[in-house]
Amino acid sequence: MIRDHRANTVHKPSRTKQLVSGGNIDVIHDYGIVVRARNLYNPASHVLLIAGAYGYGTIAGVQICMEKADELYRFMQANGGEFECLISFSMTGSPPGLSQIEMIRPLRQRPRTVIEVPVDDLSAG
Question: Are 49 and 39 in contact (CB under 8 A)?
Fold first, then answer.
């Protein structure tokens, strides 16, 4: 899950089965983040963090960086160079899925977006 302390919201990924005429298909919803922040070890440079609650969210973050690079760059230039972005991923059935930017905002001095994986999910493999 991805917890946004600034907006006081939690974005929980899900995976369900949907009954269709040919049988059951997977319906997957996942979330990812893209963060561009100052490098703590070299203030003259920046780091780009791409992470997901699960693999689909991570892939969606990379996909958004490639497909929406111009939009992210324009936002970065207009807002001091640092930002955080919430990405959603949805897929019904087989790939490809749909990745989209849910929210983008300037990064505060201390980022508060956190990825949490419940302990019981780690044992599922």
Answer: no
Looking at the domain assignment, is residue 10 inside a domain?
yes
Q: What is the DSSP string of 36-92?
A: EEE-SS-TTSEEEEEEESSHHHHHHHHHHHHHTHHHHHHHHHHTTT-EEEEEEEEEE
Residue 24 pLDDT > 90: no
Structural domain includes residue 42: yes
Q: Which residue has the tokens 């990924």?
A: 13
- What would the pLDDT profile of 25-43 be if each residue is shown by its tens digit? 888 999 999 999 999 899 8
- Number of structural domains, the chain? 1
Q: What are 110-124's pLDDT values in tens digits? A: 545 556 666 565 555
Is residue 114 in a domain?
Answer: no
Supply the range of the domain harboring residue 97: 2-108
